[in-house]
Amino acid sequence: MSTALTQSYAYADASAVRESASGRSLALETSGGATPGGEQANPRFFDGFLTAPTAAATALLAVADVAATRYYRPSSAASLDPVVTANGDRLRMESFSGCCGVYARLDVLAPGLDGDDVGHGTTNVDINVPLRQALAKLGGLDPLHLRVGPEEVEAITLDGHFVEKKVPLPQRWLRGFAEAQVLGAGFALRAEVPPAQAAAVLRSLPRLALGSRARTARWVVPTGRTLRPVSRPAPGALCLPGAERLTGLIPVLRHATVVRLYAPETAKGEGTAVAWEVGLPGMRLTLLLSPSASRGFSGDGGVLDDLATGSAARDAEQVAELLAWEPTLDVTMLAPQAGLAPERVRAALTVLGTSGQIGYDLAEQTYFHRHLPFSAGDAEARNPRLRGARTLVAEDAVRLDGALAWVGKDDHTHMVRVDDAGRSSCTCLWWAKYQGGRGPCKHVLATRMVRDDMTKESA
């Protein structure tokens, strides 16, 4: 996937762990970000203490490690700095791996923070190599002061210049945020186990070596509060795809209170995404794995059905006015506020997710608002299947025949079939290869668009 944009970060100083007579301080420097007052060059979101400093440092390092790693075809390190969102009562720190197949998020909740009120907004934070080294060495029970944003008096580096980074911004990184929230909204809690049990499973996994790639699939069957490893898919088994990608959680587990596993309720066998949530004192660390190490979230196509809905874009504008960096967004509460049916609100949230405005919290089973601090561009431009479907509709290349549809022209015509359960299939090569596992093909999308238009005309 080619890179179409370049993201520029400008930090007032480099993030660092600093020692002083008053104790230790973790200063996370912010770049340009969105706030309720508009765009700010270096927003300030929090100034106070972490109530579990060593656990927080280890979890933050895990998020930074994901941002700096390519698990599939390891080559150059990932280049994007993690995103931090302040939701008024918590801080969320998010990152994607360089291969876009692992999503990490650390939620520092109100019990994990002791200090000023948490602000509202979203920005990037500087995670540099010296800071990562300092976080790895951080220990002890002494309090750790946390500052997210610049000092009250503008901080200037020794040479009088801001710390600047210019990095490529892959379009697939933005699409990954949208796909991750759609995927997570379909997950269910499948297992809850003690940290020692989770650690035993993770220590048995192969490690990701320099120059190698994550490729191992493992399966575990939840049995009570244990995870029983099995050699192949079995009823009720959870797949650990590209299992090497989970080993970064091992250092975090010594601080954990509980570990939860999430996957689709009907998930079985190979090729299923999975999420591991590590409960920490006042915090949660979540790692979401794509269905295989070679498959990034950006190509899943889970957003396409909602994007194809004619009213979704209009509804999104209406729902966007209700977001306001809320830490929890419940569809059943948003629906009456927006004057829309719940299914239309969900579709609108999907549309907003394509510009990075929506995330999903598995633990609370609610959405949350963020506003990515870079230009999102057009959702349709980032989804060629959606563009192709609209072209087919515009060319009048969809002919309906009951449950069947013929899509295309001349030798490029394919048959789309809808079964009694409402599931669609197609005769094209895309459908033959993925069987709907990466979202609908352009022919299925075009058929749905035409059927939706006919339904509206007859209403």
Written overview of the protein:
It holds the Pfam family SWIM. Keywords: Metal-binding, Zinc, Zinc-finger. It comes from Streptomyces lienomycini. With about 450 residues, the chain is α+β, with helices and mostly antiparallel strands. Among the domains are: about 170 residues, DNA Polymerase III, Chain A, domain 2 (Roll), CATH 3.10.150; about 80 residues, no CATH class. It is built from 12 helices and 26 strands. The strands form 7 sheets. An 8-stranded antiparallel beta sheet has the order 11-7-8-9-20-19-18-14, with helices on both faces. A 5-stranded mixed beta sheet has the order 2-3-12-6-10. The chain is globular and about 80 Å long.
Give the topology.
Elements: E1 3-11, E2 16-20, E3 23-28, E4 33-35, E5 38-40, E6 46-50, H1 53-67, E7 83-87, E8 91-96, E9 102-108, E10 113-115, E11 120-124, H2 129-137, E12 144-148, E13 163-170, H3 171-184, E14 187-193, H4 195-203, E15 218-223, E16 226-230, E17 238-240, H5 250-253, E18 258-264, E19 274-280, E20 283-289, H6 304-307, H7 312-320, H8 331-338, H9 342-353, E21 358-361, E22 366-369, H10 384-394, E23 398-401, E24 404-407, E25 414-418, E26 424-426, H11 429-434, H12 442-458
Helix pairs in contact: 3-9, 7-9, 8-9, 10-12
Distance between the termini: 42 Å
β-sheet strand percentage? 25-35%
The amount of helix comes to: 25-40%
The tally of strands reads: 26
- CATH topology of the domain at 3-169: the name is DNA Polymerase III, Chain A, domain 2
Domain SWIM-type: 414-452
Protein name: SWIM zinc finger family protein
Organism: Streptomyces lienomycini
Keywords: Metal-binding, Zinc, Zinc-finger
